[in-house]
Amino acid sequence: MLRAITRPAAITWGRRGGHRSFCAADLQKVASEALERVASASRLGGPAAITACREFLEAHTALRGCGPGVQTEWWAGRALVEEETQLEALSRALPRGGRVAPKLLDTFTPAEPEAAEAALQRLVAALGAGEGLAEALELRAAVRSAAREIGPHASAGFALDRLDRKMQNVLSLWFDPGFLQVQRIGEDSAAEVREAAAAVAHAVSPDYAVQLIEGSVDPHHRCFALRHAQMDPHSPPLLVAHASLANTLPSSLAEVVLPGRTAEAPQAACLWALGAPPSIGRDGSLHGLGLGQVLRREVCRQLRTELPTVASGGGSENIVGALVPLRGFAAWLHACRAWERPGIDEAAAGALQRAVQGGGRGLRREVQFADEDGDNVTFRLVQAEGTSGQILETISGEGPPRRILKLVVAEQGRALRFLVEPGPEALQVNVAEEAVARGDPVHVGHLAEAAGLLPASMRDVVLRLAYDFIIQRRGNGCHAAERATHFHLSGGAALHALHWRGDESAAALSDSLGIMASFVYRGPDAESEAAQAYAAEGLDAATFTAGGL
Questions:
Q1: Which tens digits make up the pLDDT trace of 138-173?
Q2: What pLDDT, in 10s, does the model give residues 454-477?
Q3: d(CA 296, CA 272)
Q4: Which residues contact 400 (CB under 8 A, 6 or more apart)?
Q5: Which residue from 232, 222, 137 is spatially nearest to 192, judged by alpha carbons?
Q6: Is the pLDDT of residue 315 over 50?
Q7: What pTM did the predictor assign?
Q8: How many angstroms separate the Cα of 221 from the Cα of each of 263, 308, 493, 496?
């Protein structure tokens, strides 16, 4: 249901060098009138069309700043009006008594596009691809944001979804692969481009993002940008991909991004981040345009040129792969209460439950005791800075807190062995008998599990669950529901392995228990064949190599 504006908010909006005071309802009317002028801009031509486009963009920006929900309500109203117009046109075309099926709207092509769709076309024509495409993506982002806020079950939500699909069809013409370019990003790239690359890297590896900004990246790292041929080369690219050359396909993020681990003649290449900068990909404005596969194919091609050819049967192939996190794995485990599945013993079930629930309400978040030497030792669970995850810290005596990366309760609870950072440094605490009797070492182990630091004995249990997670099917019962898996199988990759503790950052342990998946691309011919098979048959035709599944 649309929200009524009971208290129109007065705002000031600049137009043609002056200022006028509007309430939200007035501004929505101004935006609608401006949109209609843009839609008819083909009859205006030249400067008049440019002026109409700029006035609409100013009004649309003012809607966003008018207050919560104002822009959402405006787009919902526009989508409903345009859908009603299309329904009337369809009804007139049907025989008397005929009824319009909802799906007809998705295939209906009117003689003249409705205002929002037409405006999207006019923006690019009037302002040029460089400016017009960026503004068109902003409009689509606003439509998708409105659809998300209203929800899929309201009539306005259905109308917004249809409008989004029409916008996607228009944009797909402008983002045809023939108009796109893939370029290497290096130290001589514009500052805006490097910042965009750093933002994409930061989502996967904040440490590498810092290196990228400072210009201290490892010589075996590669960074690529996808942009439209007519967009400003100094502006942020549409998509960014990060890859690294390596000795073998890596099994962890640390292997692929940390410097100094690769020999002079690398034998493999690994793609480890691919995404849109925040300023471009807001609210999924690039969704459905196929740009990710365009960039991925070209990145794989360029990486292969830097690798030696490896004989394989009757032909040859280069070892090019991708390493991806299983985003949402922990939430899925929580939703399906995976710890209650048959075959998981009581101890493993308890550890898994603590890991996906962050310990739960009943877990004491700090344990303090004296070791055998009489020194005070503290273990505590704290919120990780900048993420929703938690970390386990230890404090010895008057020393500073240090994050624990791995922990083992040994010698029947009489010793705690762990790795801490900075370092990493291996330490051991010998627990006094009194603390052992109280169960303090066991409780420390529970704190570690709540921070996602599961014991190695849980490896097989968690990887089996991770496999179940990635082979879930979408609503069509065919393709993979997990987004990264679907993306790489759609590109013709083979699922190579699942990796225990592939990413040990606090955010990854919270979101996916640190599990990562790797995929292998086996050359253009094999990829094309596998991609066609997956498109037709889904997971039933997916290829699984002899990796660590």
A1: 999 999 999 999 998 888 999 999 999 999 999 999
A2: 999 999 999 999 999 999 998 878
A3: 11
A4: none
A5: 232
A6: no
A7: 0.86
A8: 13, 17, 22, 22
